[in-house]
């Protein structure tokens, strides 16, 4: 891997993944649950993401490698649990890319009438080709799109200010239960918060820049989400938002007329397309890193001359394309949330264990902070898991079971080839 990224590029990547994955695709279905208090759902979900980002920021500099969940959980619980954690996050990235591709297809259909399957397939193919061209060019292209999508959301937030005096931003058709349920749904909007870690091996100074990029990504996107949700509720209200396939285009049209609807749809296309590109890049790095560590087939660890894991990129692109067959953004998002929350729970528990066992270089004051924040983060993940629904939870548990079976089978093959016992698959690394 080539170390060509700084904190600016990493932050732009994180913001780009998060923004397109959330407000452009889920503000409609989430408003049906939370009403005009949708902004509060984004606040609650953002706090959970920020607490979990602390674990990534603390553990990232200790082991600044790609496939962060594999690295961090491996330090605390051994490679078997590390593989399960990273498998869950890899699955969520790929599922999320499929969901956002469907969101892209919805906006494209809204503008042009192109069938959703054709628009989604075209996006996935183009994203795979760009991801294979090289990391730095891909990230800079994604950064340009990130600035465009963020600018569109900020513009809507500012334009919605005159509508605030007459708006009831506490209207909750389903009460506080609806807001908490919406917070579990829109947590999908923050899944990119940990994916900056998948660029660690391509950062020039990962120990310094990784924590900064993590915190900046969550805070910047959280502020944009909340202000956009406030503006959307003030301008058109939750009833119209929940009924629209292109909710933010509806808001822009209500403020500025039909021309703004088309302009915002273009921004939404850039945002959702950008997220699919960045999730493709991130997922391919995760696959490559786990293959390099021996928990996925070795050929997937091969890096091409341009510094890109091409084989892993092709596999990831193909799986994302297959997910288009599910056909529903909300359905895919709900399936995704259980896996990402379970993966983040393992990362938070990893920080808790390492801090408790004094396995990190730290002062006593830092150790106490680590324990308290890790406990709060783990509890918040469990709370959102309880709200995610049975389908989401069962999907997460099924993915975890598949990962455990894979590690057992791999260990059995190693023993068969070696002809003698090998170190236990769940043995923790000897150093941090």
Relevant terms:
Amino acid/polyamine transporter I; mainly alpha; single chain; 75% helix; disordered C terminus; 15 helices; 432 residues
Report on the structure:
This protein is mainly alpha-helical and 432 residues long. It has a single domain (7-418), classed as Amino acid/polyamine transporter I (Up-down Bundle), CATH 1.20.1740. It has 15 helices and no strands. It is globular and about 60 Å long.
CATH class: Mainly Alpha
The tally of structural domains comes to 1
Q: What is the tally of beta strands?
A: 0
CATH superfamily: Amino acid/polyamine transporter I
| CA gyration radius, whole angstroms | 21 Å
CATH topology: Amino acid/polyamine transporter I
**C-alpha end-to-end distance:** 22 Å
Q: What kind of sheet is the major sheet? A: none
Q: Number of helix segments?
A: 15
Which geometry do the CA atoms define? Answer: globular
Low-confidence stretches are 419-432
In helices, the fraction of residues equals: over 70%
Instruction: Provide the succession of SSEs.
Output: HHHHHHHHHHHHHHH
What is the CATH architecture annotation?
Answer: Up-down Bundle
User: What oligomeric arrangement do these chains adopt?
Assistant: single chain
- Structural class call reads mainly alpha
Task: Report the β-strand fraction as a percent range.
Answer: under 5%
Mean pLDDT: 82
Quick take:
With 432 residues, the protein is an all-alpha fold. The chain has a single domain, classed as Amino acid/polyamine transporter I (Up-down Bundle). It contains 15 helices and no strands.
């Amino acid at each position: 891997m080539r170390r060509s990224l700084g904190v600016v590029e990493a932050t732009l990547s994180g913001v780009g993944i998060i923004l397109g994955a959330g407000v452009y695709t889920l503000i409609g279905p989430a408003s049906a649950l939370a009403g005009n208090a949708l902004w509060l759902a984004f606040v609650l979900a953002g706090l959970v993401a920020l607490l979990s980002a602390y674990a990534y920021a603390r553990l990232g500099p200790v082991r600044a490698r790609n496939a962060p969940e594999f690295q961090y959980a491996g330090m605390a619980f051994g490679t078997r649990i590390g593989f399960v954690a990273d498998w869950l996050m890899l699955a969520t990235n790929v599922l999320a890319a499929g969901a956002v591709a469907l969101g892209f297809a919805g906006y494209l259909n809204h503008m042009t009438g192109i069938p959703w399957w054709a628009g989604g397939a075209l996006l996935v193919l183009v994203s795979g080709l760009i991801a294979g061209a090289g990391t730095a060019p891909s990230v800079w292209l994604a950064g340009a799109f990130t600035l465009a999508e963020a600018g569109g959301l900020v513009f809507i937030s500012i334009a919605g200010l005159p509508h605030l005096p007459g708006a009831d931003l506490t209207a909750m058709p389903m009460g506080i239960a609806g807001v908490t349920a919406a917070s579990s749904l829109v947590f999908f909007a923050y899944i990119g918060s940990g994916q900056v870690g998948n660029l660690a091996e391509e950062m020039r100074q990962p120990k310094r820049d990784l924590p900064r990029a993590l915190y900046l990504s969550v805070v910047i996107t959280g502020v944009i989400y909340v202000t956009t949700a406030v503006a959307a509720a003030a301008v058109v209200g939750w009833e119209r938002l929940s009924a629209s396939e292109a909710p933010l285009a509806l808001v822009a049209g209500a403020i500025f007329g039909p021309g703004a609807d088309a302009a915002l749809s273009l921004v939404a296309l850039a945002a959702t397309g950008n997220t699919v590109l960045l999730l493709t890049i991130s997922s391919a790095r995760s696959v490559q890193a786990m293959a390099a560590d021996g928990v996925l087939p070795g050929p997937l660890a091969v890096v091409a001359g341009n510094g890109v894991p091409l084989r892993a990129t092709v596999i990831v692109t193909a799986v994302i394309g297959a997910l288009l067959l599910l056909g529903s953004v909300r359905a895919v998002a709900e399936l995704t949330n259980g896996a990402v929350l379970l993966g983040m729970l393992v990362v938070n528990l990893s920080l808790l264990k390492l801090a408790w066992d004094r396995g990190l270089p730290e002062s006593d004051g830092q150790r106490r902070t680590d324990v308290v924040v890790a406990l709060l983060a783990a509890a918040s993940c469990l709370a959102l898991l309880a709200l995610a629904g049975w389908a989401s939870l069962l999907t997460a548990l099924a993915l975890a079971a598949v990962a455990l079976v894979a590690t057992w089978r791999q260990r059995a093959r190693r023993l068969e080839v070696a002809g003698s016992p090998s170190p236990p698959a769940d043995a923790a690394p000897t150093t941090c």
